[in-house]
Amino acid sequence: MAIAKAERLMNLALCLLGARRPLSKRELRDSIEAYVEAARPGRGEAARPEKAAGSDDSFNRMFERDKDDLRELGLVIETVENIDGEIGYLARRDSNRLPPITLDAEEAAALGLAAKVWQQARLAGAASGALQKLRAAGLPEEVDPYEGHAALEPRIPVHEAAFEPLMLACRDRRPVLFDYRKASAAHPEPRHVEPWALECWRGHWYLAGFDRGRGAERVFRLSRITGKVRSRGTGFTAPVPDVVTVRETVAGWAGETADRSALIRLRSGAGYPLRAKAAKVRELGDGWDELEIPYGHGLDAWLVEFGPDVVVVEPAELRADVVDRLRAVAKG
Questions:
Q1: In Å, how far are 131, 139, 148, 150 from 142, measured between CA atoms?
Q2: CB count, 10 Å around CB of 208?
Q3: Whole-number Å distance between alpha carbons of 178 and 188
Q4: Residue 257 CB partners (closer than 8 Å, separation 6+)
Q5: In what order do the strands lie in the sheet with 288-295?
Q6: Can you tell me the distance from the alpha carbon of 31 to that of 249, in angstroms, rounded to the nearest whole number?
């Protein structure tokens, strides 16, 4: 049914765009096969006026729905009345032609690079189509975003089943309901969230949004969402911040911002990402080093990833958070 309707809409759009003059309902009905079928009386009904009237009503309803759908999709359809009072419809090409896309070399290369980033993700098909459109819009075939860097190709891994429904919910501004297991909890809890945006930090995807149950903004790591993401309700109750603010929120919750320091012990030869962020490193001997690293929200979750190679010295609250997370992992 969906394919039949899409074909019908396409045929109507082509008729309206290709017409040199306004076309009446009668002319459109006789030109499009689906309308001919809708207006045709059934076997044995041609001689029954009430059935013929019903067929006309069926066509009229279908045509009005299709016309509204095309207008909602952005097609500009004009309604014109001729000297005899008959209504006709026309979609002028100049009213429905998009302005030319002009991209300089840097813009085209940046967009081409962005499209290639998604080649291994769920958006691979859409990204490939977008890249072809960029080629048609001015991205030369010889422009290679990886020229001189062929060994390095950015990829955004998207393995979480929650990514696609959350991406659509962010786009459509639809609240969602899902079960979420905090790193320090043994069991998931339901969350009712107004999704703002998806952001990738340190190879992990995060959802930023407004948690209705807690009445505040929250950030959720997609790998901790269990079960299906369901749509619930309509409309947002909290204002949506701009994209820069959302990224700052995710950065803070993902541990990218810090306002103090923590002291940890790290096994020699391990934890190179931690060493790269360390303000001070001191060798302790016996295969251990002492590091002073920035301490912000999310550091406990990051330290847990290094398992027995890390021991938190101070502050006590960070040590307690890491212990709670390890206990939750042990409980399964």
A1: 14, 8, 13, 14
A2: 25
A3: 9
A4: 248, 251, 296, 297
A5: 280-285, 288-295, 260-267, 310-314
A6: 56
> Among 154, 43, 28, which residue's Cα sits nearest to residue 89?
28
Encoded tokens for 321: 């958070």
pLDDT digits (tens, 9 = 90+) for 14-71: 999 988 889 998 899 988 888 887 766 655 555 455 555 557 788 888 899 999 989 8
Q: What is the mean pLDDT of the chain?
A: 79
**How far is it between the farthest Cα atoms of the chain?**
102
The encoded tokens of residue 244 equal 């820069």
Span 197-248, pLDDT tens digits: 888 776 778 899 999 999 988 889 898 899 899 987 777 888 888 766 777 7
- Helices 124-137, 105-117: axis angle to 10 degrees equals 160
Q: How many CB atoms lie within 10 A of CB 137?
A: 13
pTM comes to: 0.48
